[in-house]
Amino acid sequence: MKPIRIGALTIGQSPRTDVAGEFLEAVGNKVELLQCGALDGLSKEEIARMAPSEGDYILITRLRDGTEVKIAERYIHERMKECARTLRQAGAQMLVLFCTGEFPELEGQVLLLKPDVIMEHVVPGILSRGKLGAILPSADQIPLLGKKWEKTGLQVELAAASPYSGKEEDFRKAARYLKSKGVDLIVLDCIGFTKSIKEIVRDTAQCPVILPRTLLGRIVGELIA
Predict the structure, then answer these.
(1) Please, what are the domains in the chain?
(2) What SS3 state is found at 117?
């Protein structure tokens, strides 16, 4: 039996070698991973012109060479749709979004899993009342993402530390801040956060931590088992 083909969409450049390994480990089954990025084929000058302005929904992502970039979501809507079409045409039987941002326009002819939507339902299912902490890649995202997490009805505390350019002490500092606020659960709100970062945050904050890339992988594994 041939392995199922999973298509991964990223808002940055593909392949996301920094995400794929831990994602596939969490899937736990042999799959063929196809990837497509909204910034594939663009020069750094073209990407720089996608920088966010005031009021934009800010996305933090990674280029193929590991460089961190900030882009405005509005610039990549059509490019993400094109990626979805490309992956479906390549034979993807299921699509996953390698991003925790909101992309309501992404609906496809095959099953599409979005970490943002998954976490939106998982978090209240785990924590019916109490205080939720979230670590974001950039402090610039706090105003918009604060509103997103407040929809859970929980008390929310936010901190920022980039998974791409941050150092261990940045993650410990964010975790210590959230611990001082008495959070009961922490979400690492970016697909770029790794298992090692999760361990640092969990050990520092002394509370459960949700990592989007492995949560997404485990759900995919359940669906294809």
Answers:
(1) 4-114+214-224 (3.40.50), 117-211 (3.40.50.1860)
(2) helix
